[in-house]
Request: fold
Amino acid sequence: VMVDSGKDVPRWENLTQEFTVRIYALYEDGSTQEMSGNFECNAMLALTTPAPPLPPRIVTYAPVGGVSVPLAKGWEWTLKPTAPGGQETKVRVPTEGIREVNLYVHLRRAGGTPPGE
Reply:
C-alpha cells in the first residue's frame, strides 16, 4: 500500500495491485503468438461488503512485451482485448503470487480453410 504524500490522490489509487498484461493471438490449432493491441478492464463484482469505491474503467494499449496496469483491490475485474474474437478473462484482486495476465484473441491463420469446409 502506497502512502499518501499529502497531494490529493483518490483513495482507490493507493489500494491497487500492478499486473503485467500481454495479448496473444490464439489460432485454431492451439498455437499462440504474442501481439500488440488495445484492451479494457472493468471492475465487475465487489469482493467485500460494503463495496470499495467503484474504480474507473481502464482502456489501454499493450505493446509486444506487455504493459503494467494497476487494478484496484477488492474487485473482480474483467479484462478483454477490444479486437474481434477477444476472450474475456476474470481476475480477483488482490491475488497472491499472480502478477501477469495473458489475454487471448481467437484468430484464423491467413489462407486457412474456413470452418465447415
